[in-house]
Design goal:
Helices cover about 35% and strands about 25% of the residues. The chain is α/β, with parallel strands linked by helices. Helix 1 packs across helix 3, helix 1 runs antiparallel to helix 5 and helix 15 crosses helix 16. Belongs to the pyruvate kinase family. It comes from Amantichitinum ursilacus.
């Protein structure tokens, strides 16, 4: 094809596309949007028209003719610019305003100015108000947004945490936004019967049974807060800590009657740091001796221990019963006749039992466990487990449930959410809404914020279902009715809903639509989660963080190593920026 013919064909296609863009500008859809957001809504409608009407060979043809193609940030201007360029050989265009700065300005308004290489949102512990040192450390490490999870605690705790964040911001001189995330419908596992209050420690040994590393056990005063980063923490009588010295020995007689000696290495911040070379099990009341050489200096007991969270272990081939209501879950048990009684879990959400059907899939804990529903009625589901991460998963209470084959007619806001919304708005810079599925969900939320005169509060839409992805353009148009909007990609729930194979494409689809609508994006779920909990990241997490750099804000979950995780995240993204070749 000659260049003259290619130019003529491209101009015909661009003129057709320009007419389609004008026809797509539906006043009925644009008029309800916040005035400042209409440019974004118009561009989103143009993008949908572009997908529908642009010939498949248009972009490659424009590239062949020396044009960069159609910019997604300002589609109408990009098409007009291409027409002018091809129509007038001497055309010398001004730089295209692709509205790239619009999303950046919106992100800064919602999350604050960027400090370092990443804006970070950190989930606060439920009792964050009691930990001012932690809040100071998070802010000094450039936490941009404090996330308060309204699925836990109560209005008084949420308010106390919000005030504590504000006080920490004033102490450190580091501003911080406060985001409240409403619980949404409780599509979760209920409580599981807790396990006995026992602490077990076990040193690492080689194949020959020789000690590789003694295990560190920390003893603290009964009634005080356990050390946050201890692998094993045990409360004992205060008298023992008053008398203890480095080099002394703690002797315990564990629940099996076995005598175990621990070497006291140090006394720090009212905590005894000890080393053990033998496995032991201790429970409340376990006898403890403080010994110096052959002499007993003091006697005491292990104090009250919290009950350990219960779990239900599941592997492929297992049978699971999911009950409607609040019955406490319990593991599978062997009957006297040798047969196995199935493990039991509960779910309080009635719609699950009304709408699921036999043969449909069900997933738990961000897809770590998958099963097929073999029997279903209004009271129980009989499930056969088909997949479990690593071959066996310990499911804990409160973990999420996903039904990828079932459409649940659930509104994003429950009655409890509506009450919570009114309670948190006076403290809120941002309000995150879970389980958004339809444009109607968003319209309801925007209307509520308007009724509460809260147009200044940023609205975060948490995307976690397959249905919201299918309707995402319409959902984003509805969201643009509110002046300040961002999107959170809840990758764990999306993976459980759509499958891990589809997650990468889904993430890119969401990022593309948000770029078109000039909406900031929060990257969430399991970002450096292993590091936050254990202090060391997995290799997969490190690779995953590089993708998080595409977003405007990265959400981290709570954990004893969260301050170190913040530092690591910023350093990792900084290195990626330095080593990424420029285009």
């Amino acid at each position: 094809m000659s260049r003259h013919h290619a130019v003529h064909q491209a101009l015909e296609q661009l003129a057709y596309l320009q007419r389609a863009l004008r026809q797509a500008e539906d006043p009925a859809q644009l008029q309800p949007l916040a005035e400042a957001n209409r440019v974004s809504g118009r561009n989103l409608l143009h993008f949908l028209a572009l997908q529908q009407h642009a010939p498949a060979d248009l972009q490659p043809m424009l590239h062949t003719l020396g044009l960069r193609g159609i910019a997604s940030g300002n589609i109408a201007a990009s098409v007009a610019r291409a027409i002018d360029w091809l129509s007038t050989p001497q055309f010398d265009p001004d730089p295209l305003d692709d509205h790239a700065g619009l999303r950046l300005r919106r992100a800064e308004h919602l999350f604050g100015a960027r400090r370092g290489c990443a804006r970070t949102m950190v989930t606060l512990p439920d009792n964050a108000a009691r930990s001012p040192d932690l809040l100071d450390a998070l802010l000094l490490q450039d936490m941009a947004v404090a996330r308060i999870n309204c699925a836990k605690g109560n209005a008084a705790q949420w308010h106390d945490n919000a005030v504590a964040v504000q006080n920490a911001a004033e102490r450190t001189g580091k501003p911080c936004k406060r985001s409240f995330e409403l619980a949404g419908p409780k599509l979760r596992i209920g409580d599981i019967t807790p396990r006995a209050a026992v602490v077990k420690w076990k040193p690492e040994r080689n194949d020959a049974g020789l000690i590789l590393n003694p295990v560190q056990v920390q003893f603290y005063i009964t009634g005080e807060t356990a050390p946050a980063k201890a692998d094993f923490a045990v409360p004992i009588d205060e008298a023992i800590l008053r008398e203890a010295q480095a080099g002394d020995t703690l002797r315990v007689k564990d629940v099996r009657g076995k005598r175990r000696d621990l070497h006291i290495g140090a006394l720090k911040d009212r905590v005894l740091i000890c080393e053990a070379e033998d496995t032991a099990y201790v429970s409340p009341g376990t006898p403890v001796q403080l010994r110096r050489g052959a002499h007993v200096i003091c006697r005491g007991h292990v104090g009250d221990l919290p009950q350990r969270p219960g779990y239900v272990a599941l592997a492929p081939g297992d049978t699971l019963v999911l009950m409607h209501g609040s019955t406490r879950g319990q593991p599978a048990v062997r009957r006297p006749d040798g047969s196995m009684a199935a493990a039991i879990l509960s779910c309080a959400l009635e719609d699950v039992f009304v709408h699921v059907q036999r043969g449909q899939r069900i997933r738990f804990d961000d897809g770590k466990v998958e099963g097929v529903i073999e029997q279903a009625d209004a009271h129980r589901l009989d499930i056969r487990i088909t997949q479990a991460e690593g071959g066996r998963v310990k499911l804990k209470g409160g973990r999420g449930i996903n039904l990828p084959d079932t459409q649940l007619p659930l509104a994003a806001l429950t009655e409890a959410d509506t009450v919570a919304l009114a309670e948190v708005l006076p403290d809120a810079d941002l309000l995150a809404v879970s389980f958004v599925q339809t444009p109607a969900d968003v319209e309801q939320i925007v209307e509520l914020l308007t009724q509460h005169d809260a147009s200044h509060v940023g609205l975060i839409l948490k995307l976690e279902t397959a249905s919201v992805v299918r309707q995402l353009p319409q959902v984003l148009l509805a969201a643009l009715r509110h002046p300040h909007v961002a999107v959170m990609i809840a990758r764990g729930d999306l993976a459980a809903e759509m499958g891990f194979a589809a997650l990468a494409a889904t993430q890119q689809h969401i990022l593309q639509l948000c770029e078109v609508a000039h909406l900031p994006v929060i990257w969430a779920t399991q970002v450096l989660e292993t590091m936050a909990k254990k202090g060391v990241p997995s290799r997969a997490e490190v690779s995953d963080v590089v993708l998080a750099g595409q977003a405007d804000c990265v959400m981290l979950n709570k954990g004893p190593y969260i301050v170190e995780t913040l530092r690591f995240l910023d350093d990792l993204l900084a290195r990626n920026v330095q080593t990424t070749p420029s285009a």
